[in-house]
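QA checklist item 7 of 12: single-chain prediction sanity check.
[x] sequence parsed
[x] length recorded as 271
[x] structure emitted
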Amino acid sequence: MSVHSDVKRITTHILQEMKNRGEKISCLTAYDYSMARIVDAAGIDLILVGDSASNVMAGHETTLPITLDQMIYHASSVVKAVKRALVVVDIPFGSYQGNSSEALRSCIRVMKESGAHAVKMEGGTEIKESIVRVLSAGIPVMGHLGLTPQSIYKFGTYTVRAKEEQEAQKLLEDAKMLEACGAFGVVLEKIPASLTKLVSESISIPTIGIGAGSDADGQILVVHDMLGINKEFKPRFLRRYADLHTIMQDAVENYVKDVKAVDFPSVNESY
């Protein structure tokens, strides 16, 4: 089912209403116009222009190298394609952690230059000042707790977070802090399902899970992972909905074969 052109845009307010009535929120990433158009037309509620573009689009090992300029480029490409979904943009590593005025500058640039609807920042109390400053400028902010890939070198591993009582307690407090500051939602990445349930019931704003069980108010995956374009990444939380890697490679191989055999273009494909 494709969504009609007269469709109502998803807003942060609508996401809140969805949580209130128990309707799950569907989210995927997108980084370019063509992919975003497909994802949006399929009826997704929220599109995250993730700093995972650093991995899947640019081939970096971590999310750290991607720049603010590159994120704005990806975000503006996505925004042009989207008619319905809420578009949220990751503020990349090094663009907000230093101080709150830098954070505000970065977020204003993203909103003005890409036309996106909201921003996402990783971390809890450590970045509270930045979150408050950005929100006070009228920019909607989504939080991100649990496994925060921008802090990968601090953790040293992409393993499940907040299994210990102390870290779990801090995560819950950070989630409550995000709500109190005025964030419209929070991503919970790779944490125990029981903690996701506790957090989702303890705060009134929507929680979006990735590798965090089914009790989050919504779910998100990287689109290249769930479509099977990436074959190398096989975490337990990933469900593959297609094997586009094979389909695309077969198509290219057939094209190469036809060109070599002078089978393409045919008479009908020539002028």
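[x] summary fact logged: Strands lie at 25-29, 46-49, 86-90, 118-120, 141-146, 185-189, 207-210, 218-221.
[ ] second reviewer sign-off
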